[in-house]
Structure formats: C-alpha cells, structure tokens
Amino acid sequence: MPRKINTIxxxxxxxxxxxxxxxxxxxxxxxxxQTSTSFNQLWQYLQLHADQVDVLFLDILLNNENGLxxxxxxxxxxxxxxxxxxTSEASYALDAYETSPIDYITKPISAVxxxxxxTKIRHAGxxxxxxxxxxxxxIKSKNVIQMINIADIRLIKKDLRHVxxxxxxxxxxxxxxxxxxxxxxxxxYGFVMITRSIIVPIHDITALDYNQATHRYTIQLLSQLKLxxxxxxxxxxxxxxLAAFNWII
Length: 249
Prior knowledge:
The protein is α/β, with parallel strands linked by helices. Helices cover 29% and strands 34% of the residues.
C-alpha cells in the first residue's frame, strides 16, 4: 500500500485555502496535514513536522510577506519539500522558477490544471499506484453492495440517469453510485475517465488512433469495445493521467 502524499498549504486568504482543500479532497492519495495563513504559523509547524511533509502549496502575494522569499528559506532548510505555487499573479512565474518548484498554478485554480500539477508530484516523487490484482470493490446496486473484482471491470458508462459497469464475462451491473464517485475510488488502480460519462481500465488501452480529417482521437481497447472520438484537448489531459502510471507518450 503506497503512502499518501502529505501536503500543507500557505495562503493568507481563508477562502482560497478552503477551495484548494476541497479540490484536493477528491484525490485519495493526497493528505492535507496543515493549512497556514502566515509564514510564522507555517514555520512553527515545519520545525516539528517537516519530515512528514512532501508538498507545499504556496501563495506568492501574502500580507506583509513574500512567497518567493519563503520558498527560498524552505528550499534551503527543508530541501525534500516540493513546492507548488498557487497565486493570482502570473507575472512572478519567471522569478518563481529560481526556486525549482514542481509547478506554478494561477488562480482561480481549475480542476484540470490541478490534476496536471498532482501528476507532476507523483512523477517527481516516484509515488507508486495500487495494483488491481485480486482487489475487490463494493458497488452499490439498489439495496445491495455487490463485491466486484476490479480486474473484471471493462467499462463504466453513464447512460442517461443510470451508471452501468460492463464486466469481463459480458454481464452488466447497474449502480446507484455516480460516475465521479466511482472514478475517485478506481483511479488509483489504473482507471482513466475518457469522457464525463466513460471510465476504462488503462491496461485495456491498446492504441490511440488520430484521425487527421476530424482532428480527433479514438481510443482502441483490448476488449474491442467502441468508444466515442475525443478532442485533442481532452487527449492531452488523458496523456497526463497516463503519465502518472509511467506511460511514455
């Protein structure tokens, strides 16, 4: 079982902290240890717990404090802590990279942009992902929780108001859970959300077929199931997710 990525946040705006915490809560491999609104609070925490911290989300424009100066102090004192800048000011990006951050995200932070930053964290730290051999997941189906072997899942699809799982024996299971909830449970085991309504296991992907006429991609699966074409922008996000599982594309 791989350990979680322990994270702390420094931002002088409580709303910004709450928003980032809420977004990070969707990632089961992220553990927010501490949030601070001032460098003094942060420093007191690090003096006791720095050995437990993997990542710092750091704002640059702080009340009476400069995030760039703070980053230099932390990098020199605790070099194992990785830094991700999260700031409303994009003009500091060049100066920020002098401290070798993992990423630089401008506010308001989008889910897609955050996903890319977290992918970089996992790459940089060589964090492993869970394997799906002999792992079962409880799937709610009406008043029953069905125990399904993750390796048997071939496709999850939202069809109108229903979410269905297609299994390796060609049987189908209709669940009362949302497709987003299922993705949160399964992504650490090698599942990728192709569209907002389709999830597939990464190990089933055999090819990414680009159509020059339509400028769209078709993902080919080992199971031969047909998927709708996807845009170049969405494929870029999917490639970032695949990179977290050591795919080189």
